Structure prediction request, 367 residues.
Amino acid sequence: MSTDTSGGAPGTGARAASATQPASATNPASAAGPVSAAVTSTAAGPASAADPAPPADPAPAAATSPAAGRHAAAVRPRLDRPGEELPAGANPVPAWIRFFVSELRLTFGRPRNLALLGVLAIVPVFFGIVFRLTLSSVNGPGGGPPFLNQLAGNGVFLALVVLTFTLSLLLLPLSVGVVSGDAIAGESGLGTLRGLLTVPSGRTRLLFVKYAAIMTFSLVACLVVCVVSLIMGLILFHTGQVTLLSGTTVSLGSGVLRVLVVAVYAAVAMMSLGAIGLAASTLTQHPVGAIAGILVLTVASEICDQVQQLSAIHPYLPTHYWLSWDGLFRSPVDWTGAEHGLVSFAVYAVIFGAIAWARLTSADVTT
Prediction:
């Protein structure tokens, strides 16, 4: 029951009635002074006085504006950079993977690099036709170089012959040198290097992504030469069991597998050359200078490797172990030459990779 003790003032009966309800007694703020009376008078109605409505949050209303939507977008933690935020709806793939994929698109999307791969694909076709005509000439198999006799026995050897020619004639080194020499110097020459470093991608991450793209290009280039050579060899020459250098006969599948291993070995050799090119690319803003330096170094190493008076330094030359894969075509497989070559390639990659890192991380990039 309720008693009107307010002297008949309008609305006072309602405030008194709300003050005597048990639910309001539990709220100390609603039991004192005119402020509580005003609050209870506004709370009367369907809403319970014991549970006043919370203040309206202006955020939902503000979020309807474009500016508020952009401000409220950064609410999720980054998966690739701890402590940073990822805008809502953004790709959760780590940034370094997106950066690497973008670099691959740039590397394999340039017409110049595609032209280099096209030339490497044409070389096996040219040599295959030339060797086929040579073997079909009047002189016969005995009139040509010794390796032509092995090629006449099985077309698988065309891949080894062409791979040797592309390394000796500097076709593969030139292709890798163009890509690696342009990696940093090209960005600097175009004025995009500073922008890449403010994404932020980080100088170390940028260097690793660039070298990973060089490694990928090296592998693809060697596989293009190898696969096209195998196809041309199978088309133009006899196929069947493969006779190894040791005289042992293995199946065609085993021979093809050994050829692919040789291609991967050659790719690792080109990756070490790519590390040298990447280091040269950090020393200049002109890609042509870096590419020329790589070619000069390669030619000088090849010349020194042929001079017997310099045999003491042969094992330390970057090109000395490029063709040390003949043990893979023996039975049992002799890994000695290949192991020495892999160690040499790794040492060169580490040394020149460290030089590239020290140069890039300490350089004052202004372009």
User: Anything to note?
Assistant: The radius of gyration is 37 Å. Confidence is low (pLDDT under 50) at residues 1-51, 56-84, 138-146. DSSP finds 16 helices and four strands in the chain.
